[in-house]
Specification:
The chain is an all-beta fold and 258 residues long. Helix content is 0%, strand content 42%. It is built from no helices and 19 strands. The protein is globular, with a radius of gyration of 17 Å.
Length: 258
């Protein structure tokens, strides 16, 4: 996940170096040797408060009104996973299986995987020119975005057959999530997009800020109990909570544990 940079990626893999000053200058590095699933809720470490609002405007709430809280979490299980899969998007499919989007050029796939065994049950190979990214499930359709493009794909959940190809309005394709009605997207900047799943047009954009600074590199997204959990590339997990019809974002920093 990064911008349209001329920087070469050795062996078709993403750079693990820190992004340049441009919010879209370098991709994320998320390569799993073993895949861990936290079944218990990951309760984070440090609290910051931000606010983003509609279309082309944004403002923030001072963090002075909020105290710092410290949380922990418990790792309750570990499951086998294909060490060659460059995991970019992950969705629980029910029936003890996952939908997974994997990246890397000439290796990108969408697949359904058995949780207990790690066995790939169904696999769709993407065209060599696309780098698979964020994935989310809405109804009977899987939505996927791709890195360094504004192109996304829609798949049938039963057989992973490609149903459609679409063009989105984000600067790049990084993360996707849904609340069951609309899609939420990220492009590696500080902007959180709301997207109509029928038209695939952005209906709202929120710029996430803290203390006057944009929170950049919003990456993979998850929608959990009315909140957006955003993985900030190579940094932390942020928790964005909707309150009073605006987006009140409480950002947590989650220490690396693996």
């Amino acid at each position: 996940m990064a911008s349209k940079s001329s920087k070469k990626k050795p062996n078709s893999k993403r750079s693990s170096s820190k992004p340049a000053s441009s919010p879209m200058a370098s991709p994320k590095h998320f390569h799993l040797k073993r895949f861990f699933i936290l079944i218990s809720i990951m309760l984070p470490v440090c609290v910051i408060v931000v606010l983003g609002v509609s279309s082309n405007t944004s403002f923030k709430i001072s963090s002075d009104h909020y105290s710092v809280k410290i949380y922990g979490f418990e790792l309750v299980n570990e499951f086998p996973h294909d060490p060659r899969a460059f995991t970019q998007g992950l969705v629980y499919a029910g029936n003890e299986s996952l939908y997974e989007s994997t990246g890397l050029y000439k290796q990108s796939t969408v697949r359904r995987v058995a949780i207990q065994t790690g066995k790939v049950e169904v696999l769709h190979k993407m065209p060599d020119s696309f780098f698979g990214e964020g994935l989310t499930l809405l109804g009977e359709r899987l939505f996927q975005v791709t890195w360094l493009t504004k192109i996304g794909f829609i798949y049938d959940t039963k057989n992973l057959q490609k149903l459609d190809r679409f063009t989105h309005q984000m600067e790049d394709g990084w993360g996707l999530a849904t609340d069951g009605k609309i899609l939420y997207g990220s492009d590696g900047t500080s902007t959180l997009y709301q997207i109509d799943p029928q038209t695939l047009k952005a209906t709202r954009k929120q710029v996430i800020q803290f203390n006057g600074r944009e929170v950049r590199y919003l990456n993979e997204l998850e929608y959990i109990n009315g909140e957006i959990w955003a993985n900030v590339w190579q940094h932390s997990i942020k928790k964005i909570r909707r309150q009073l019809f605006d987006w009140l974002a409480v950002l947590y920093i989650l220490n690396k544990v693996f």
